[in-house]
Amino acid sequence: MRTLKYAALGLTLMLTTGCSTGLLNQKAEDGEDLHWRIVTHQVPGTSRYDSTIPLFVETVAEETDGKFIIEPFGGGTLFPITETYDNVSTGTVQGAAIFSGYWTNKDPVFNLASIPGDPLQSADEHYLRSEAVEPIFASAYEGAGIKYLGAFDYGPSEIFMTTSKIETLGDFAGLSLRATGVAGLYFDQLGANSISIAGPELYTAMQLGTVDGAEFNDYLVNSEMGLHEVTDYLIEPVLHTGPVSDKDLIFNEEAWDSLPETYKDAIRTAQEATKRASAGDYAESNEEAKKIWDDAGVETVVLPDAEADEARRIAYEWLGEFAHENNRTLEYVKKYIAVLRELGYVEEADTIEAEMKKAE
After folding, report:
1. Cis peptide leading into 237, omega within 30 of 0?
2. Domain of 96: which CATH number?
3. pLDDT, tens digit, for every residue of 59-101?
4. What's the pLDDT tens digit per position in 179-233?
5. How many domains, the chain?
6. Which of 72, 172, 196, 297 could form a disulfide with 190 if both were Cys (CB 3.0 to 4.6 A apart)?
7. For residue 354, is it within any domain?
8. Cα–Cα distance between 318 and 323 in angstroms, integer?
9. Does the reported pTM lie above 0.90?
10. Strand segments (E) across 169-284
11. What is the DSSP letter of 195?
12. In Å, what is the CA distance from 271 to each residue of 55, 149, 277, 286?
């Protein structure tokens, strides 16, 4: 039903506009027709796109009686994913539902869109953190004329896939791992060599041995990409990051400010719908997808507690140092520590705080 409704919305858009050209500067009063564009890094046909993006645009349309139509574009369709920040800032598109970790060159705080050694597990824990740090990301985006609305959805913890068996931290030495940004910095500290490879190229890279492994996405999406076919081992626990906002919601600030309140409310309602859907149906589907990996004969290797503890100590040492990059990173890590304590992760909070003081 959702697919049919979404197709109807797309048909309506084509009939009323002919194309997207000329839509970017449109404004509307309450009850008037308005057409916007939104981009994402996820690809249509994969669960992380299909479970949230169509739901979001449909909800906005339903909440406004079909007056406010948002046309979505999948990853890289209009321009390279890493150029999304600038294209939203300049108004080339009105908005994006996208991972904030793509623009660590804009402000160091965006590195903390994923956190090494993060112990958080559930969607509720993740959303509590995302709400606590929302003003910090909002401040970082604001200077570029971008309105930040916070988490768009929930991304379960990534899985770590390898073709080499890892049983101790020493086994990381010399491995080539697909990792970018903070993940790359972290795995380099474990003795591996990080390589930046686009997600769609990962299957071939693992198949040919270009990389020995990757911590990337979850059971469901990775199985849709066929990665269980080229993986021999899953390494647990997750070392680089816990649950994240797979997508944050951002808009060109001028465009956002031009909206009537009813249309802003429609966007917020739709955002809540995607947050619930990703924390519910999607999370359940991801858990069910574990069986695909078991059936494919992929072996799960659980690191000894001492090895996992040392991996997290290395992560927290890095985080304690990185907190001092600028005022925003310092505020972010302090908020993160407070959330950890609130959720009962007292030992982890104390360790990160101690590392921060050592790095002062």
Report:
1. yes
2. 3.40.190.170
3. 999 999 999 999 999 988 999 998 999 999 999 999 999 999 8
4. 877 888 888 889 999 888 877 789 999 999 999 999 888 899 899 989 999 999 9
5. 2
6. 172
7. no
8. 9
9. no
10. 176-178, 193-195, 213-216, 233-236, 248-252
11. E
12. 9, 9, 10, 21
